Amino acid sequence: MQELIRIEGIQKSFSTHAGSLEVIKDVSGIFYRGEIASIVGLSGAGKSTLLHILGTLDKPTAGKVEYVDNEGVCINPFSLESNALASFRNRRIGFIFQFHYLLPEFTALENILMPGLIHLSRSDTKDTTLLSRDYLLDQAYRLMSELGIYARKDHKAGELSGGEQQRTAAARALLLEPEVVFADEPTGNLDSYTGDELFRLLIRINEKKGTTFVIVTHNEYLSKKCHRVLEMKDGRLDGLSAS
Prior knowledge:
It is a single chain. The chain is α/β, with parallel strands linked by helices. Helix content is 34%, strand content 27%. The protein has a single domain, classed as Rossmann fold, CATH 3.40.50. It has a six-stranded mixed beta sheet with strand order 6-7-8-3-9-10, sandwiched between helices. A four-stranded antiparallel beta sheet has the order 2-1-4-5, with helices on one face. Strand 1 (3-16) and strand 2 form a beta hairpin.
């Protein structure tokens, strides 16, 4: 399998009134292109913190994160200056969170288009494949059709059901066809049927597009449907080096 993300000696600690709190302790390993990996573990084990570091939303206290492109060239995103890092994150990474974080004043379609519009507005972008709003609209319409929410495209976030909101958030994450999508408890606020349905959609997208998914979940039933199950315990991650 082709490598996508390498991490080496990742540590993360926070300063508290009681002293330093070490949340992640020396995590190393590889995530592969086209895989679905789930990260399970008790609350407070460091799962979300690790996901934020992998997604470049937070910096590790120590250690290295590298993304490997199709030619095998490694990029340390934390070595980039802030605008370049924002562009890297916008173009190559998608996020789905437990709470959908849709903008209430915008429609479902407008929320989905947001990453693309941000991309087009950036003066530092060198991507010539996303030059028109029409391209983004076609992408959004296709995703909404695949996710079964096309008929709700003109409805604002508050007019959507919980499942529709999460599908909208999933479409937003997938709009620019990122290499990897990080999902933090994406089914946590959904009933079991709707959560299972959303999970099946993510698996179908993985099979169709080869998108890599790294999913934090407490749902053991859903985690077993992933290619790898990694257990976070006491700041360490078991199974990450396995292929």
